[in-house]
Structure prediction request, 105 residues.
Amino acid sequence: MITSGEGKYKVFLEKHILDDDLVYILGGGEKSHVGGVVVCEPYKNPEIMKFEGHYDYLVLQPIAEKACKKYNKKVIAVGGVHVDNASKEEIDILVNNCKELLKCI
Prediction:
């Protein structure tokens, strides 16, 4: 598991290997949840599942795409981060922390 950020802005990414496939679980903030799912297969466009009111797919998609390209495997990225009543500034902090996780894929 890798992490980025501190306190209520801390996010994590877990990698699970399923034989020839990969599953990444993203969570953090004040409450981890399933806000979206992104599925990537080599040489295909990603499939995105968005849950109403959630925008977690925006940070899940780059995770799935980068891992798929790097490892040439099917990848699922699932999860979400949440901070109650988050301001735009707080959302930006969470998004930037999620982007930091990409460096470790």
Q: What stands out?
A: Helices lie at 57-71, 88-102. DSSP finds two helices and six strands in the chain.
